[in-house]
Write a structure and sequence with these properties.
The chain is mostly helical and 59 residues long. It is built from two helices and no strands. The relative contact order is 0.06.
Length: 59
């Protein structure tokens, strides 16, 4: 029975890891992808604007 107690933790961790990967893959895209992409684009535009404003303070 020592081999069962030795193999149980890795098997449980592997099953949980597979479950996490499946959830991540399933949630990619879908209905909220457009909204998420828009939020990222807006954040990048704000960061770029702030960078340009800092680089050119006279404008």
């Amino acid at each position: 029975m020592d081999y069962v107690s030795a193999l149980l933790p890795p098997v449980v961790m592997a099953a949980l890891f597979i479950g996490v990967v499946r959830v991540i893959v399933k949630t990619q895209g879908g209905a909220s992808k457009t909204k998420e992409d828009a939020a990222v684009d807006a954040a990048l535009a704000r960061a770029e604007g702030a960078r340009r404003a800092a680089a050119n303070p006279e404008a």
